[in-house]
Amino acid sequence: MIQEIEALLAKKIGFEPNIIGSQKIAKAVETRRLYCGLTDSQSYLRKLQTTPQELEELIENIVVPETWFFRDRKPFELLVNYVISEWLPKHKNSTLRLLSAPCSTGEEPYSIAIALMNAGLLPHKFRIDAVDISKKALHKAAEGIYGKNSFRGGELPQKERYFQPSGEGFQIGATVRQTVNFMHGNLLEPVFLKGNKYDVIFCRNLLIYLSELASTQLMEGLDCLLIPNGLIFVGAAESGKVPGDRFVSVRQPFTFAYRKTEQSGKNLTLPSVAPKQNLSFLTKPTFTTKVVQRDGKLEQPQLDSLKQAFSRTQRVGETREGLLSPANSKTNPLSTELIKSKIGSLQSPISQPPSPIPELQIARKLADAGKLEEAASAGKTFLGKNPTSAEAYLLLGEVYQATGDDRQAEQHFQKALYLQPDCYEALTHLALLKQNRGDFAGAALIKQRIKRLENSQNLG
User: Fold this and answer.
1) CATH of the domain at 109
2) How many domains does the chain have?
3) Are residues 40 and 155 in the same domain?
4) Same domain, 190 and 212
5) CB 333 within 8 A of CB 250
6) What are the φ/ψ torsions at residue 93 (nearest 5 degrees)?
7) Same domain membership, residue 79 and residue 52
8) In terms of Cα–Cα distance, which of 205, 171, 177 is closest to 109?
9) CA gap 435, 161 in Å, rounded
């Protein structure tokens, strides 16, 4: 019955059961079955098939919001530069149209609004549609009340400008709330948002949970919604799912932004922003790379040799990740010379610290001793209690890689990057996996990303 329910979820919302985890789905099913007072899974499956409201309730139990204000700051820097340097001069009498999907509990669309307002864009000059499949998340987003967990990406130095104290934390101001239109819906529904057009789309950390078929369907839908030469932002682990025949990477580290190509095939670059313009409220981030220390090692290539190999970045696929337009283009990519403004700087996103947790240490020691099945079991148990641990996903990825299950390994490394985009070890493992299966272009993209991470640390 669980397999049939997983198939139903895959059909309705595109979720890949292997990525979400059968154990998590089974737990959610059991919770809802008991709540409905049904005696067995077969009865619950029939209810799911005939009651759309119950399917929504099950999805609510599976989807866990994981977001915060200004998560991964670089995309917001690029957005500000794009709007001020390119969009605004050409559309002085127009309204900037943006889509945030999935928007979860609202931190991302509100961050977009704050970024644009700080750049000098008046509230009536832009409109944000924010979409999610979870009604509970949308209800919280509409209320706009947030606790300290929503600010873990860094405290806003002028929080009082956008938030008012509330008994439960802080509430987003009415001026910001009025720029966001929250909508309930499924992005995989063909008619949903039909006829809408957007200049910028944020679709971060959804593709990672979808099957290949659903990912393709979603990107086709977003392609229709985005205007030619518009920008789309994806998550750190999702670059490989952006079709290269329709989108070209913007050459800015850690933005994971792509430009939709024109029908003619001509790809324009974003003009540079003059240093004298006071456009940005964010400063250069400091990336923290964590290397887990071990007494022993799994039987696989040494990370030191991988680091040396990856530093010799290949140019294969560079026009996708490294350049906005073909290598023979005479145009220049968008400059990131940004000036700190009166809102001040934000702290960089919190990386997972080296974990002193005994359960995870036990799992690591089991893996180092070659007891891979026991290590996997211990890692899964720990992850069930700590679903946002990048280190646990990294460990399980290494275990699956050592057992030869490259598919599961890649999924776990991607989840580690979802939680910690600058996780050096996850990047190196992913590059190795892609190279071993002959995906040299994909491996080259990750190698470029590793090189940029190394360069940013050296500059820092």
Assistant:
1) 3.40.50.150
2) 3
3) no
4) yes
5) yes
6) -110, 20
7) no
8) 177
9) 49
Strands 96-100 and 126-132: parallel
What are 275-334's pLDDT values in tens digits?
A: 333 333 433 332 233 333 344 444 344 444 444 444 433 333 333 333 233 233 333 333
Query: What three-state secondary structure class fits 182?
Result: strand
Where does 226-357 have alpha helices with state H? 303-310, 318-321
Cα distances from 135 to residues 106, 141, 196, 208, 333, in angstroms, run: 12, 10, 22, 21, 40
Say if 20 falls within a structural domain: yes
Looking at residue 86, the DSSP 8-state letter turns out to be I
Q: How does DSSP classify residue 210?
A: B
In the DSSP assignment, the letter for residue 124 is G
Q: Is residue 446 part of a domain?
A: yes
pLDDT of residue 457 exceeding 80: no
Inside any domain, residue 316: no
Residues 111 and 246 in one domain: yes
Maximum CA extent, the chain? 69
**Mean pLDDT, the chain, integer:** 76
Distance CA 138, CA 439 (A): 39
Domain residues for 79?
Answer: 74-260
User: Is residue 340, in this structure, part of any structural domain at all?
Assistant: no
Residue 77: burial class (beta carbons within 10 Å; 0-12, 13-18, 19+)? buried
Pairing of strands 226-233, 247-249: unpaired
Please tell me the predicted confidence (pLDDT) of residue 274: 33
For 354-410, what is each residue's pLDDT tens digit? 444 677 878 877 776 667 888 888 888 888 778 778 888 888 888 888 777 888 888
Same domain? 91 vs 181? yes
| pLDDT tens for each residue of 231-286 | 999 988 888 888 888 899 887 888 889 999 875 334 344 443 333 333 334 333 32
Please report the DSSP string for 130-162 in residue order: EEES-HHHHHHHHHTEE-GGGGTT---TTHHHH
CATH number of the domain encompassing residue 399: 1.25.40.10
Closest residue by Cα to residue 168 from 188, 185, 145, 191: 145
d(CA 106, CA 127) in angstroms, rounded, equals 14
In terms of domains, do 233 and 120 share one?
yes
Q: Which one, of 251, 233, 253, lies nearest residue 242 by Cα?
A: 233
- Whether residues 416 and 445 fall in one domain: yes
Give which of 128, 103, 102 is closest to 15, Cα–Cα: 102
**Same domain for 170 and 58:** no
